[in-house]
Amino acid sequence: MIKIVDEAECRKYRSDCSTTLKKVCFKLKEKGISAQFVLVGSGARNMVTRNGNGPFDLDYNLEIIKAPDEYWNDLRHLKNTVRILLDEAIGLQCFSEAKDSTSCLTFLLYFKNEPTVEFSFDVAIVAKNSNGTLCRLIHNKNAWGYGSDQYVWNEVPHSRNVTIKVKQIKAAGLWLDVRNQYVSLKEMYLSRWRDKDHPSFVVYIEAVNNVYNKYFA
After folding, report:
1. What is the pTM of this model?
2. Calpha distance 72→18 (Å, rounded)
3. Cα–Cα distance between 115 and 105 in angstroms, integer?
4. Tens digits of residue pLDDT in 120-135
């Protein structure tokens, strides 16, 4: 059963992740890449979820603001650069090396001397296009069935004006509806559909839009 994690349990992990990502942004700056990280989705709004007593995760966006052409023209190079710097910043103490999924880099924290996962965090590389819409760096593995990988920017669906919608929802006293919708969507994607390619911040945007459309559209 999907349930929301107590805030006190999340606090230490947020602090550790923040320290790691600050180091990465500093190292990226040395390479001419201006970037900022943002805790997104459930972690930024005290809606972190877990399945029963299992591990939980936090989602971060690493937004690329400015970078040399060599990175914009070679997205594989951009993602590999971020991955290597994250591995170095973490130091791999109890954490796994970065796992490169379609839409993010995942780091698993194991209990000491045990193979059980205690916690994980995901880092999605994002940037805004000319319209101001947030886009995620996507790694389509074996994209054409011939072992060729593809790296592309994909717009995050319905991500514009989310902050404005949230303000309107909260002003109307409907924030609990968003929390309930979020938990319901997580339950659907993870427990029923076994779909692990829905980062929390994407599910959060979907929950906000569902509640907004129900009451205000």
Report:
1. 0.79
2. 25
3. 20
4. 888 999 999 888 888 9
